[in-house]
Amino acid sequence: DAKTTQPTSMDCAEGRAANLPCNHSTISGNEYVYWYRQIHSQGPQYIIHGLKNNETNEMASLIITEDRKSSTLILPHATLRDTAVYYCIVRVIVGGRDDKIIFGKGTRLHILP
Amino acid sequence: DAGVIQSPRHEVTEMGQEVTLRCKPISGHNSLFWYRQTMMRGLELLIYFNNNVPIDDSGMPEDRFSAKMPNASFSTLKIQPSEPRDSAVYFCASSLKGGPEAFFGQGTRLTVV
Lengths: 113, 113
Prior knowledge:
The structure holds 2 protein chains of 2 kinds. By secondary structure, chain A is mainly beta. Chain A has no helices and 9 strands. Chain A has strands at 9-13, 18-23, 31-38, 45-50, 55-56, 61-64, 70-75, 84-92, 107-112. In chain A, the strands form 2 sheets. In chain A, strands 1-9-8-3-4 form a 5-stranded mixed β-sheet, with no helix packed on it. Chain A has a 4-stranded antiparallel β-sheet with strand order 2-7-6-5, with no helix packed on it. In chain A, a hairpin with a 6-residue loop joins strand 3 and strand 4. Chain B is mainly beta. In chain B, 0% of the residues lie in helices and 55% in strands. Chain B has strands spanning 5-7, 10-13, 19-24, 31-38, 42-50, 53-56, 65-71, 74-79, 88-95, 103-104, 108-112. In chain B, strands 2, 4, 5, 6, 9, 10 and 11 form a 7-stranded mixed β-sheet that branches. In chain B, a hairpin with a 3-residue loop joins strand 4 (31-38) and strand 5. The mean pLDDT of chain B is 94. Chain A binds chain B through residues 32, 34, 38, 42-46, 49, 87, 94-95, 97-106, and chain B through 4, 31, 33, 35, 42-45, 48, 50, 55-56, 91, 93, 97-107.
């Protein structure tokens, strides 16, 4: 079962920052927070992951609260191509025996022109 | 690298027939995942392999489903006999064990009539 809770859908105006929240109140110390997205008719695509520090890459930023019970994915300047379903996933430390990736229902993000 | 390659992209078959879906992971990757996606149930993990060995097949719906990974460059998911409720998009993904990012194929859209 997915260990995360996300809003079902969100809207964001093109050019604005999209902030996608995720709750993972039962996260364990050995679990990372991952984000993937799935654009219509394509396979999911990795975005970013983190353990407890904030992370940034060319696609997005990930802000994890100090207690690690929630996080926010930030797309700094959303474009129409960012319209997709965004999945927040909790996953044990990669490399462990049981490092499977379990998807929840995700957030459907609509970027509005 | 061409990425994860799945075949066929589309499959239409009659109920009761055997169906075989194929996946070629990215060269050098040693973890492989099979997922099924439907509107009702979302993305479900069926089975995953590490170093060609099945680690967790608890998501395989029933005995009609079987998966094999005879070598590091090839995996199959077989459904025998197929039923209309098996209609879905089936995704294969691969990753480096110890690496954070799983790469997904384009999927196989299966329709059982």
